[in-house]
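Cross-posted from the bioinformatics board.
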Amino acid sequence: MSKAIRNKFGKQVRNLRRDRGWSQEDLADNSGVHRTYIGAIERGEQNVSIDNIIKLAKALSVSLEQLFKGL
Amino acid sequence: MSKAIRNKFGKQVRNLRRDRGWSQEDLADNSGVHRTYIGAIERGEQNVSIDNIIKLAKALSVSLEQLFKGL
């Protein structure tokens, strides 16, 4: 089910963000993705688009392949 | 730039589809993603959402990690 994978993706984003010691606001500032949107992505609530996925990967300095690792 | 990565993603989808000997219509039927939308994704024109990315990966029997390999 899509929702389960979305949830895993959200957790991956959250873990990578926390590894960097960043708040959601820090990730928003560094990626250009709005802060409330970051929260929704991390909770798996957002049907995030590839453009925003790319912005998050760039801010977190990971490849898309790494961002989807294990998913 | 996002567009370059979107283009690569589209080529990846196209290659995987062709490896299976599928037309865009076959991939549309197997994934539940509309045919004209498949064309736009393959050309990098579509800001595809994670839910549709998941549908494509399932239809192509690849993980998300594999779908984004090298990107």
